[in-house]
Structures are given as structure tokens and as C-alpha cells.
Amino acid sequence: MAEKASYDPRVVVIFNPKAYANSTNIVEWLDEQVISLLGSQPTLIVLDMFGGHKTDEVLDTIQAHNITLGMIPGGCTSMVQPLDISINWPFKDILKILKEKIDE
């Protein structure tokens, strides 16, 4: 994809033509970015309840590599993910303010 060329080559970017994450993206991320780094270390991965995280394909990949899966209950992601609280919310607030200024 042409957009991928605009990213620094040290940054891993996975694209889906429809612009939404799905189980294929998740398995690709697991295989290339998580599992390849684990070795035989015991591993816990914590995911939210997004449907793409709960497919047989994703769950089979996680189980095949003896990864323990923790699921964040629906509606609780923002309470337990530090980036959602410390970065994403303030960033979204700033974007909203900037958009409102542009729209004026």
C-alpha cells in the first residue's frame, strides 16, 4: 500500500484495505511482533473484547504458543489501559478542540 511508504521503516504498520482491524491483522501482529520475540518465556497477553481478538484463528494462535490470555471485560478498557487514560483521552480532547477551531 502506498500509505505504508510514508511511515518510518522502523515502525511496524499493518494495513487492512477496509481500514478496520480484524482477526487476520491480529494473527499477523501476534506472529510477527509478539510470538517471534517470546522464545519459551511464559507470557500473558491481555486483550479487550474486540470481536477480532476472540476469533478461533486468534485463540488457536495464542493457545498454540502457550500464551495465557486475559480478557478485559466490555466497557472497562479505558479504566485498565494506561494509554487510554494518560494519552489517548487527552489527545482526543486536543484534536476535538483543534477541529472546532478549524470549523469556526
Structural summary, described in words:
The protein is mainly alpha-helical and 104 residues long. It has two domains: 1-71, no CATH class; 74-104. The protein is built from four helices and two strands, in the order αβαβαα. It is globular and about 55 Å long.
The helix/strand series, from N terminus to C terminus, equals: HEHEHH
Q: Can you list the strand order of the major beta sheet?
A: 1-2
Task: Give the DSSP E fraction (strand runs of 2 or more residues).
Answer: 5-15%
Q: How many structurally independent domains?
A: 2
Strand-pairing-aware structural class: mainly alpha
CA-based shape = globular
Largest sheet properties: 2 strands, parallel
Annotation keywords:
nucleic acid binding; 104 residues; two-stranded parallel ribbon; DDE_SF_endonuclease_dom; 10% strand; DDE-1 domain-containing protein
